[in-house]
């Protein structure tokens, strides 16, 4: 017995956006808007729905702009160990620098889509079942806090999404959806590998009539690797060990035939070492979400959600001698932060006027608060030497949107969205302590700003096998509390905060074509053009600040980011699937007041060329094998384009085999040929991960009556 055929990653091709489901709830719906049965079975490619920027589930082929989906089958077959490494297999997706969260400091785990001004802060919104998962203080993404075993799929929208999501969605949205709660179900993974890697995860779920619950736990330990190249390494340089543990619980209830309730909560603990005694960081996080959805017969549907989190980030910084043989602590930072928010969304019934209109409107609000306590250890003390600093601030933001999904005919559809946002930074304060006893303090002026974000998209299908899509949009991102108030250090490079930062603003457009053939081949081309005004960038200062800081966050002027995405997939047979994708991005500074040397320079930390090729053979009676090739071109570490890093081609491999009952054995390898390439050049060069291999066992569907594995995915990206 085999399961249904399900779409592979890019067969869920281009659609606009991901709807911001209410925090903590991801309700599957049919095309007409009703709730679909909770089931692990996937509909075929032609009828499967995705959550789009219309905030309505739409048939995949009807969505009007770019959406890429990584389904559960590909999550299971991926050789990657962490979620950021997984999403980076999409050529349009990148995280800051080339190091995964396995060894990267939490503040370097940002996200950028289509080369849009990469930095430590994410320029894309990350959601977990509708919950904004970006860090409330710095906009970072704690990727390891997202257990894979409980995921159903990942949807990626690499296009400006502020019209529905507000500030955090400047460059797009990545949303992770939890698996439906069925039961009873028990799944478990366990693996060990080189570099001292050990991994264990488990998920249990059950349903009792109208109530369902699930619990997921995950733990990972790794010794890491020597991140500094051998020719620059000193006695202080060692491995980069890290540990994390996470747990999530979810409860859903159908209170009545029209009212659904949901609650979701999780905890996360991570420790990470950057390779020396005094380059360590840790994160402690607890979060919750609760929601209610009311469906009425005549007035449409209403969704109410609340969410919040408390967290604590801590970091040690080091000062090393030039030969890297001696090290002393240079600073300690403690950053407690919290946020709370909520949303209310209304989706109206269908209206008939020259076609079919579905109206939606919503309002949301979020409050973020944080403080950075910093203790400094300078080389020498004078009465004016700074040895302690505390900064704090609060940001409140909110927005209201309205949209119309207008279906003229099955061949023509429009989606128009308009959102108005406002945000206010206040309670900004800095207190410094000098060795001589003075304690100068600064109160930063409160600042309020507003933004109007429109978006218009269209989908045309002149022939059943041919689909054309286009959209134009405006998006923005307000500076985070971290960018406004917290200085930081990477290697030997110190970067200052800037309380006078303004919002980044983006104008963009994209257009694409997709064609399918009856032989299982699907191809697509999408071009995009973005103009980013006032991007927040780490700018090299002409003269260092008195404390030795050589960079500062500044609104840079203007950058143009244009490019093209190509994708194809081919279902050669039921067992064989080939996926290919390529992204070209041309990110260039076009205006830089006060920094004329930056004009014409490429934005740092992102290559112009990225490609991906994967071939899968999947036969439940024999073996499942996935081989993938990741290729990325040269890039620069700095804004002046003086510190270059070469490109690389990396091969990964995954193999699994059914053993007995419901137990599979598997092996996974990343960087099969141990390709050595640079990940960063911030004062000292750092290396990307070397050869990593692990083997393990999987236990699936222990309480289910059938032990058959799902069949391989359906054709078409």
How does this structure look, described?
The structure is a single chain. By secondary structure, the chain is an all-beta fold. The protein is built from four helices and 41 strands. The strands form seven sheets. It has a 22-stranded antiparallel barrel. Strands 3-8-9-6-7 form a five-stranded mixed β-sheet. A four-stranded mixed β-sheet has the order 25-26-30-29. The longest helix has 6 residues, at 72-77. The model is unreliable at 1-46 and 706-717 (pLDDT under 50).
What structural keywords apply?
22-stranded antiparallel β-barrel, five-stranded mixed sheet, disordered N terminus, globular, 3% helix, 717 residues, single chain
The assigned structural class equals: mainly beta
The total of helices stands at 4
Number-wise, the strands total 41
Give a short account of the largest sheet: 22 strands, antiparallel, barrel
Q: What is the averaged pLDDT score? A: 87
- Residue stretches low in confidence (pLDDT < 50, at least 5 long) are 1-46, 706-717
Radius of gyration of CA atoms, rounded to a whole number: 25 Å
Classify the beta-strand content into a percent band. over 45%
Oligomer status: single chain
């Amino acid at each position: 017995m085999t399961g249904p055929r399900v779409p592979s990653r890019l067969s869920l091709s281009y659609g606009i956006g991901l709807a911001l489901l209410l925090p903590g709830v991801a309700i599957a719906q049919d095309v007409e808007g009703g709730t679909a049965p909770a089931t692990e079975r996937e509909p075929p490619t032609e009828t499967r729905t995705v959550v789009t920027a219309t905030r309505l589930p739409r048939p995949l082929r009807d969505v009007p702009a770019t959406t890429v989906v990584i389904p559960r089958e590909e999550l299971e077959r991926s050789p990657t160990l962490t979620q950021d490494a997984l999403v980076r297999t999409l050529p349009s997706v990148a995280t800051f620098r080339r190091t995964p969260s396995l060894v990267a400091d939490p503040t370097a785990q940002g996200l950028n889509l289509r080369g849009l001004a990469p930095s430590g802060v994410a320029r894309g919104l990350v959601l977990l079942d509708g919950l904004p998962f970006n860090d409330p203080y710095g906009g970072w993404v704690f990727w390891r806090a997202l257990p894979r075993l409980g995921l159903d799929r990942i949807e990626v929208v690499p296009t400006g999404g502020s019209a529905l999501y507000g500030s955090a969605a400047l460059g797009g949205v990545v949303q992770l959806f939890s698996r439906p709660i069925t039961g009873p179900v028990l799944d478990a993974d366990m693996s060990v590998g080189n570099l001292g890697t050990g991994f264990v995860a488990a998920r249990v779920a059950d349903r009792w009539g109208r109530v369902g619950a699930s619990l997921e736990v995950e733990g990972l330990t790794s010794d890491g690797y020597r991140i500094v190249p051998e020719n620059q390494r000193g006695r202080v340089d060692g491995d980069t060990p890290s540990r994390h543990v996470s747990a999530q619980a979810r409860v859903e209830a159908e209170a009545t035939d029209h009212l659904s309730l949901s609650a979701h909560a999780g905890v996360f603990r991570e420790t990470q070492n950057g390779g020396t005694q005094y380059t360590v960081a840790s994160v402690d996080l607890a979060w919750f979400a609760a929601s209610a959805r009311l469906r009425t017969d005549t007035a449409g549907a209403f969704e109410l959600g609340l969410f919040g989190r408390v967290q604590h980030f801590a970091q040690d910084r080091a000062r090393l001698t030039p030969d890297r043989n001696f090290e002393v602590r240079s600073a300690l930072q403690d950053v407690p932060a919290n946020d709370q928010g909520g949303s209310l969304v209304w989706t109206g019934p269908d209206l008939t006027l020259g076609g079919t209109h579905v109206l939606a409107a919503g309002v949301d609000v979020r409050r973020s608060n944080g403080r950075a306590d910093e203790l400094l250890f300078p080389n020498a003390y004078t009465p004016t030497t700074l040895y302690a600093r505390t900064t704090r601030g609060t940001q409140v933001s909110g927005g209201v949107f309205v949209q119309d999904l207008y279906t003229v005919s099955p061949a023509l559809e429009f989606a128009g969205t308009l959102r108005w946002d406002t945000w206010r930074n206040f309670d900004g304060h800095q207190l410094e302590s000098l060795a001589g006893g003075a304690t100068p303090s600064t109160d930063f002026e409160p600042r309020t700003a507003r933004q109007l974000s429109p978006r218009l998209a269209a989908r045309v299908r002149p022939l059943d096998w041919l689909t054309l899509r286009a959209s134009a949009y405006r998006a923005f991102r307000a500076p985070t509390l971290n960018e406004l108030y917290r200085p930081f250090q990477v290697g030997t490079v110190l970067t200052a905060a800037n309380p006078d930062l303004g919002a980044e603003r983006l104008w963009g457009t994209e257009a694409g074509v997709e064609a399918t053939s009856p032989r299982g081949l699907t191809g697509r081309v999408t071009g995009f053009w973005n103009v980013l005004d006032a991007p927040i960038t780490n700018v090299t200062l002409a003269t260092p600040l008195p404390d030795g800081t050589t960079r500062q966050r500044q609104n840079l002027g203007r950058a143009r980011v244009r490019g093209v995405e190509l994708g194809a997939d081919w279902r050669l047979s039921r067992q064989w699937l080939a996926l290919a994708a390529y992204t070209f991005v041309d990110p260039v500074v076009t205006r830089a007041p006060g920094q004329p040397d930056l004009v014409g320079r490429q934005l740092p930390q992102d290559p112009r060329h990225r490609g991906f090729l994967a071939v899968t053979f999947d036969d439940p009676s024999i073996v499942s094998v996935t081989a993938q090739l990741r290729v990325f071109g040269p890039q620069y570490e700095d804004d002046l384009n003086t510190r270059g890093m070469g490109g690389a081609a990396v091969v990964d491999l995954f193999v699994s085999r059914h053993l007995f009952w419901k137990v599979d054995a598997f092996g996974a390898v990343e960087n099969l040929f141990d390709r050595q390439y640079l990940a960063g050049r911030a004062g000292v060069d750092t290396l990307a991960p070397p050869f990593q291999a692990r083997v393990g066992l999987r236990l699936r569907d222990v309480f289910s009556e059938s032990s058959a594995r799902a069949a391989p995915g359906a054709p078409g990206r």
